[in-house]
C-alpha cells in the first residue's frame, strides 16, 4: 500500500503530464495562427455579425493560456480560457460535426473534445507541485 507522500508525488506528476500535453498540443495550433494569421477566423466571425478583430482573442486561448498552463502560472484561469476557446471553436467551426462519427467509429470531434475536457480537468485539479506557482502557490 502506498503512503500519502507517494500518492501526492504521483498526483503531481500526473498533473504535470496532463498540463504539458494539453499546453504543447494547443500551442501547435497557436503557433500556426501566429505564422499564418487569423484571417480565416476573422472571416467566420464577420459572417455571423461579430467584429473581425475578436479573432485575435484566439491567440490568447492558443498561445498565452497554454504557455501559462505549461509553466504552471495562473493555471486554473488559463485552463478556463482554453476551455472557453474550445467551446467557441466548436460552435464556430465544428457544430455540424457535433453528433457525427468517423468511418472508424470515433467521434468526429475527438480532438476538440479531448482539448475541452482536459482543460476542464486542469482547471479543477490545478497545477500541482511541479509548477511555477507550487502546490499552494498564489499563481495557481
Notes on the protein architecture:
By secondary structure, the chain is mainly alpha-helical. The protein has one domain. Helices cover 66% and strands 0% of the residues. The chain is built from five helices and no strands. Helix 1 crosses helix 5 (110-125) and helix 4 runs antiparallel to helix 5. The longest helix has 33 residues, at 4-36.
Question: What average pLDDT do the residues reach?
Answer: 92
Distance between the termini: 30 Å
Q: From the alpha carbons, calculate the radius of gyration and give it in angstroms.
A: 17 Å
Helical amount: 55-70%
Shape: globular
Sheet having the most strands? none
SSE string, helices as H and strands as E: HHHHH
Strand content: under 5%
Based on secondary structure, the structural category is mainly alpha
Number of domains: 1
Instruction: Write down how many β-strands occur, each being a DSSP E stretch of 2 or more residues.
Output: 0
Low confidence ranges:
none
The tally of helices reads 5
In short:
This protein is 66% helix and 0% strand. With 140 residues, it is mainly α.
Amino acid at each position: 500500500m502506498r503512503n500519502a507522500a507517494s500518492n501526492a508525488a504521483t498526483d503531481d506528476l500526473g498533473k504535470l503530464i496532463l498540463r504539458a500535453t494539453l499546453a504543447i498540443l494547443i500551442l501547435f495550433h497557436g503557433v500556426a495562427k501566429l505564422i499564418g494569421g487569423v484571417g480565416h477566423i476573422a472571416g467566420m466571425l464577420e459572417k455571423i455579425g461579430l467584429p473581425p478583430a475578436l479573432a485575435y482573442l484566439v491567440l490568447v486561448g492558443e498561445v498565452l493560456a497554454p504557455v501559462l498552463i505549461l509553466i504552471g502560472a495562473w493555471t486554473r484561469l488559463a485552463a478556463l480560457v482554453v476551455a472557453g476557446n474550445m467551446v467557441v471553436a466548436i460552435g464556430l467551426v465544428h457544430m455540424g460535426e457535433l453528433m457525427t462519427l468517423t468511418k472508424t467509429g470515433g467521434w468526429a470531434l475527438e480532438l476538440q473534445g479531448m482539448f475541452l475536457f482536459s482543460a476542464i480537468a486542469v482547471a479543477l485539479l490545478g497545477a500541482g507541485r511541479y509548477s511555477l506557482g507550487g502546490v499552494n502557490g498564489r499563481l495557481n
